[in-house]
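Moderator note: this is an archived Q&A kept for reference. The question asked for a predicted structure of one protein chain; the sequence and the answer are reproduced below.
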Amino acid sequence: MVGERQSPGWRKPSDVMKIRKKKKPRKSSSGAPSINQSSGDCRGSPQRPGIVLKRRNPFGCGGGVAVARRISDDCQTELKKKQDETFEDKNVDDEEQTEVVQAEENVTSSTKDIVTTEEEKYHHSRTCPIDWCLHTRVRFTSEAGFDWSSRISSSEEGRGLTNFVRCSTVPSGQDKPVAEDSIFRERLQQAAMVWSSPSLPWFKSFPRIVPESKDTRTTFIVKEENVQESLMAQWCDSFCSVYQLLRAEICPFFYVCAHHLTILFRARHIAGMDSIHAFLGPTTRGFRESLKAEGVTFTMPLLKEESAKHQDPHQVIGCTQEEPTNQESSCKEEAEITDGGGDDDESDAASWLGSIGLDNFLEISNHKVQLQADTSAKQDNRPQSVLFVEGLGNIQALHNFILNYKNIVATVGLQAGIPPTLLAPLAFHGATLSSCKVKSGCLRQVVGQQVNDIHTLDVSGPILPHNVQQLTNLLSETQEGQFTATFQAHGPTGAFTIASHRTLTDLKESPVDSEESNQSPPSCAGFSQEFVEQLYRPEASSEKPWKELGYAEGKFRWPQV
């Protein structure tokens, strides 16, 4: 039957899979021989993974030797490739290392250049220079603490006051390591002392030149003539006493602080000057005219510099020409003609004004023209109006002028009837011992993600040059040899430092008497020998008033001009 027939070509899927599983080992056995299945000639050859050998030709001669040679050649080529790769890697590493070294050298050289340029912007000195302006406040900052200055005992305060009054120097803390902090506190007390006059408990004697306050009340001294006379008499005695000490070269300098004027008197040989001298500022035209009337000769060192900057170049060129041209001669003739006509016009105008009754009108107009022509009048109450008076005769005339000058004392306001303040480093007749306020504290400064503690020491009051010197010398020993000082100068006295430097440059250009310059300066009591030598050296004076002063690695550093 047809239905009972079975086609021999058809198979079930399960039978097909069984057949395929049985055929797989047969294919592997009949495949290409591997290294292990090869003949005995190839058994001695090195076996390397990943290398498939061709089946040996049974009709060839020495097939096993050729295969071994080919395998060794392949191994050698692979070894050479690996060696070349490692050598190239080494060369790349060496090049990278050389590039890194060159980059590091470039960075170090650039940083050195930056450091050198920054260092060139600052002056460096083993000793602290002298700033001749008065300071109202100084803040010292350091990473080391000021714990040693927080508590001054009564005995330490007494020893510091006694040493200041007796003009004796305190030994440094290195001489007595047992009582080191005690000696530092004594020196701090001594460095904050000043002699002043007059002493009025209800009145702040410094600073005297202050902005106008809204309080327009006058003191009771104006109404009491007896009080005014007694205060002025005592002040005259004090002023004469400190002036005589200056002439005797016992007191090196002192200050006179009035309500509109500040005067710095300096003794002979101070800052390289051959005679006694003084600086006055700020001044006005009326004050200068009154000085001339009293026979006091003076110069304006800062005004010379300003006038030289703004000088007309055409005028300088015209002055250098020797022979005038024809056009210039014709211009001169025309100017003479116009001048002659101008004189006739002025005479006619004067006669006409005289007929009306205004004879003094021309005098007033001529005075106005003179004021407009005076260039120094434009610098009134400015730093350029500082005066320099030199010589014993001129200083004596200035001394007499100040004693008889009525406007030296204010007539209205809170300073009415109060004489000027005298400040000196040494005692004089009628002087009062006053001290600066000293306060230590701590500030926190955020630098990136870190918070650093900065310790501070604030000194406020009338701070004279000797106070700054003693304080800096003290802190150079206590603050691990590193600190920074920020100064707040009294504005009207800031020009004294600049004027002093200007006069010194002028003196260097002029000839100096050898006999006077070779004289040795006297020693001032109450100061260290190092500070006395600085007082008499011209290069020890600062060029401009300080704003910041640093100390590190045994050297003082301050910015250049």
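Archived answer notes: DSSP finds 15 helices and 14 strands in the chain.
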